[in-house]
Amino acid sequence: MPKTPAVSKGIPPCIIRYTTHPIQNRIVFSRILLEDRLLTSTASNPPLAGQVAVVTGAGRGIGRAIALTLAELGSHTVLCGRSREALEQTAAAIQRSGGGNSGRGLEKVAGKSSVIECDVTDLHSVESLAEHVERTFHRLDILVNNAGIGGAGGPLHQLSPDDWDRVLNTNLRGVYYCIRSLAPLMINSKGRNGHIINISSLAGKNALPNGAAYAASKWGLNGLTYSVAEELRAHNIRVSVICPGSVHTEFSPHPGKNAEKMLQAADVAHAVAMIVTQAPQSFASEILLRPTQKP
Known about the structure:
The chain is globular and about 50 Å long. The strands form three sheets. It has a seven-stranded parallel beta sheet, sandwiched between helices. A two-stranded antiparallel sheet has the order 1-2. A two-stranded parallel sheet has the order 9-10.
């Protein structure tokens, strides 16, 4: 088979490559088809028009990039996090970018996004978020569980119980709280499709010396995702997990790595866009996202 150039304007460099592998070609071409589909959508009819999305950890980094992307695709995006100032900055960026108008019954909601302070480690806080979404929008189409922390480094036997709890409570218990509180709203939206997207890590696929708590939280998150996907598929809710390698953001420096070769927050957001714009008869249950060149 001759080499096939997998090149399309706007596709992140993490997956632009020449390949002789037919399955890899199909993956790359799916990215091209996604881009063509988004380009044919008009500003008056974006692909997620009328939908409501909740993004946790939306104030910075990957969460901010995902929120911007979903708003550009037309959803009303509910920005969640512990820092109102950071969330307001994301909301302002969405407003400046001219993200797709929600429309279709959401005209009464001002703007393309809304800000809700929420601590995913606090069940009462997450339940208050769910109540607000149901009271305000009467629907939820997309939930992106992005909030997460890295935690302290070092051998596990030297890790304090408080540090262990902090990592597991945010990265795993927080996702449980969000699904427990928000999935019922999706289930009750009969006749509509829903998406739950969990942002994990390649650390949930590999050993991570001196980061055992973080790895354990992400291995657990992957297992949670696979299981909940089977529980909810009968309700037309597709549950997916994205496992990126190291992502360069201004908040997560990686000493010794070439930032230009690392994944960018926009690459993860693009993967989210792929998932939420799929045809209803299929879903990508897991995406492993790696840089083209090792940084």
